[in-house]
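Appendix B.2, paired examples.
Example (i):
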Amino acid sequence: MHQKLHIFIIGLFLFSTFITFFNTSTAYANRTIEVATDVLNVREKPDANSSIISKVVRGETYPVISTQGEWLKIQVSDSKSGWVASFLVSDNNQPHSSPSVTEASEVQVLTDDLRVRSGPGTNFSVTGFIHSTDEVRYVDENENWIKIRANGIDGWVSKEFIRIQEKDPNETEDPPTSQPEPDDPQTATITTNGLNVRSEPTTQSEVLDSLSEGKVVLVLEQKLNWLKISYDQKTGWIHQDYAKIDNQSSNSTSSNETNSSAIISVSGLNVRSDPSFSGKVIGQVLQGEEVTIVSEKNNWCEIEYESGETGWVAGWFLAKKPLSVDSSSLDGEGTVLILEDGTNIRSEAATSAKVIYRAAEGQSFPIIGVENNWYQIQLQDGTKAYVAGWIVTTKGKAPTFTRAGAEQYLLNKVIVIDPGHGGKDVGAIGAQGTYEKDITLRTSRLLQDKLKAAGATVYLTRQNDTFVSLPVRAQTANHHHADVFLSLHYDSIDDSSVTGTTTYYYDAADKRLANHVHQSLIQFTNLRDRNVRQENYLVLRESLQPSLLLELGYISNRGEELTVLTSEFQERASTAIYQGLAQYFRDR
């Protein structure tokens, strides 16, 4: 009897062990992570003091074997596995955009003259227009904006004016967007150390080699976000985020005519019928030859290469001469197009000058001259007036002007955003059952998109619905040497009548940051002002950089919960934080 019982217990133990192993294996079978820092140490044990057994680099993906606290065990190779800190990787199980939408998806434009902006928001500058007949590709999205690629240029458009058409997976891949010919070489410089060269344009493909920062390679082909390169008599694929295309024109996507001149910087440059390498070769210009630029489009320049004959050349092979404008030459050959209702038309070329007319969206006026960055135009009654060149677009022979907005103050800044709560920690629960952890992540992702579009480097303490301890949130900001750390929250209280926005700081030196962001939030969201307050929160106290904790509204109030859940509020709140940060950096 005892022997049978003993055998039964052993069998039960083995069965339980099998079930536990099976469940664990199943739980992690399809989970992968992507390295989110330049070089990440893989350790023997889940401990920062444990020995380093390998190193992995940004952009690489690895399967997850198991987890322990804030550590993930990953399979580095067939024979090697080790532990990495979870806050230095991103989880691929919950991608930013819909998994059914890929970069191969086509975007149908539902209107003509749809504005393309440099970032996801109306506060970003208009960089061009797309039309219902244009071929447009999907790149990325958030809940209000779609990032698209048209004619080789990326930009953001309002989601309400487009429709995404998923590509049939059985269809063959489109040809590459561009393929330089041997006589028109294009080079790129590697911008990070340890960049993997892969056999195919995917992070899942075989690693062939590794390149160092500063290495110059020849670009053979471009496919979505990947570059096929040639170097040291080898070829392979690298991700375009870690290489800078050399000699590319920095001009806008506008095809506005410029009538500036340039010098050909390479020998035997082909002139083509269209602004792409697929255009027919219709002529050739020689190195050192001076040509007139008639118009520009997507880094290509239309030039007059023979008397009365025009064609397109790659703009990065031109050395442009300074533009001089003869006002008399503009008469009747250029117009401005108004982009916004109520655009001020002034008596002089200055923002302090008297407003003599307010123009409506879509109106156009002939350009009769240029003064500084202002166009002198002629109104319908013959009156001469001025409009700021950076708030309109042009058609015909006229120079284009841009004025840097908030993005100039955010360029190259490092921002760490902490979406409050996550995983088992749901945070506050709203009157209708909304989880705080869900809406903090929504707001954080929208803010991340805006900051990245402005040139900032942005890290999130969590990419999805996972638990992250409070010390690790602050450590993430410290690790990345952030310029600013923001912890985003939504509030709750037993008194359901309480509403409003509160901004908290810990160090007295951070009060100026708090004031900038808070005032911007009140201005954009119109919620009740609950003021800026000093508080001893751990994530603020342990952070080594300027830090704020934002309570963006009370979800315990039914009306405010409904408000903060709308896409309109999420857009306004993320824009407010973006603008508040820009004002803070501007005034430093």
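Example (ii):
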Amino acid sequence: MKKLAQTLATLTMIFTTVFAMSGNAQALTDTQPARFADTSMPVQQLVVYEKQSVSYDNFGAAIFAQGQLSSEASKMPPGSEISFYIDGNKVNGPAGLQQSGVRCSSTQANADYYKNTITMEKRFCPDFNDAILDGRSVYGMVPTEAIFLHKSNGERCYATGNGGAVYLINPASTFVRNYIAKRGAEKLTQYGVNTLFLDNLQPSLNTVQERCGGTPQEYPNLNNYTAQMMDLAAYVNSNMPNYRIQGNLANAVPSVWDQLSFLNGAMCESCFSNWGGSWPNASRMLSDLAVLDKWINVYGRTAFIVIRPPDTNEASNRFTFAAALLVARTDGTGVYFHFGANYGQLLSIPEYNYNLGLPTAPRTCNGNICTRPFQYGTVTVDFGTRQSTITLGSVPTLPAATSTATSTSTTVAPTATSGAASPTATSLVPPTATRTASPTAIIPTATRTSSPTARPTFTNTAVVPTQVLPSPTTGVPGQNSLSIRVSSGSNDAEENSRGQMYTTSSDLELVYDSVLQTVGIRFTNVNLPKNANIVNAYVQFKVDKATSGTVNLKIQGQASPNPSAFTSTRYNISSRPRTVNFVNWSPPAWTKVGAVGPAQATPNLAPIIQEIIGQQNWASGNSLVIIITGNAAKRVAEAYEGDRSGAPLLYIEYNVPTMMIAEPTSTSTATSTATLPPPSATVTATATVEVLPSETPSPQPSETPLPSDTPEPTPEVIVPTDTPEPTPTP
């Protein structure tokens, strides 16, 4: 048995671990690692940035810089989530190039500096510094000096370090955004990973001022700089459609996490921890808890909770760990945790592997104290006193069985009390259960009084619209089809990057209108049976304004079985949970006002619609919502207020399972008797078959011939004005 007592000089709290397996008590030894992907341990560990000195068997995720990807990624357990780390707000290069107009020497061009920023290796000189002087295109764009931030004296904002120097980039630069997306895709393909992690999306504004010797020329209001970092992440996400994008958001400012809900995962460095040397108050930690809970359980994203205290105070780490347990998903996923004095070290402590099983309910809070039940225990966290308790041994009671369980509580306190007696080791008895009887089931039998002479097949026949504009499909055409047009002004809406809602606009900018925006489109009375098999689906738009230029859009659905109409509440679109399935769309130029044709029809949205109607509470006649995000360019479509007959139209083709019934003279009776002590029950059921009516879709507008394209310049980015809360970032 593992000792429960350790001296207060080296450890300030007690944790007890008990495994109840096959009726025998099994305690962890000091060398026994946590088990990867074991649902008895809902919160797994995380490797951050650096090589570890411990075995990787107990890790579930990793964020590696380029040097570690080549040497460490293969050590991770199969199925681990591995991300490629880069610092998103600066670029590494040789020292001595802070003055613009100075060409790199051969020595500078070959300098071996740390490769963790946006070039991802020694490409500062050819791709940035010298490309500006030569007017040379890199990934299809020519850089100018505007890609950097500058001091008041005109020098580039920089600091020595990382084997040379780091230069702050301007996140609003289209060249920088394009470079990260193109270079990122190259490197992820090279290393065979699919996730890019962008550090400093909510950067330390103090660090910016230090490297710029004050406020940079480009951002008199430094909060606008942080807003542009978030827009940079949106651009990279939209322009790397085959990859997942994650980011370091530093602290849990609700508006920031809502705006960046398109990210696959996010890191919080200050959640439930004394990041920077001071603890947040209970109110702030409860707010962080709500933000993470929404991120994990509503948006369906992954959270990295990272603690880097100024010392290795295990009481602090254990408190934060217990808080993380409060937001794990009900399937035991969604949260990864990193302990240690810095990112490059890990304190691998077997005591963190508790046999809690899966969460059985959400957390409940009473004041500053939050509690959550698990299959084999309970977690309680007091955010006021920063103490936490994990109670093991609460085993679920089986039907018709009696059980006796011994529970043990262990309390985590952040500090030790001088002079207190050391606790003594205790031997724990595992939960035991005794069945009074084994359930017996009698298999139902069925007897037909006469056999049917025929089993006709009922197939619904669709009325085909006079003008069908389907996108490319797979499989056979749908047997049924329906068309639904937006029916009110509150059913198509725009939300800008500051969360402001526009529900009465006469047009829909997909998706740039001075700032990036999120577009929501709601379709009502969608008469799709729950068992429908979606073959083809698309949204048909009508052109309101002629536009050209490259547009990259990402289309998702709202992951709700019957969503409400849009309102004026801030972030009313982006705060809605989204489907896992998505479709990318790069529409060609829209050059003819009023055009309604294939160029204005989305690709096949069948996977999105299928996921929506597959939800538990979906019923025919419910509403569904389509959500569109993208890069800083646009196509402009009619909204309901601008042209009711040209408002977005959803077209769906689907099949329903073939149903067979017997002739009326056939009778089938099935009796099922099941005995479970106690009680017993007798159930008699008569099978019935429902024949679904066919749908009659509304005709779609005819296609208008398209003239030649008329290029339109891509608009400049206008800086949002959100005010994130600054937090020091490494």
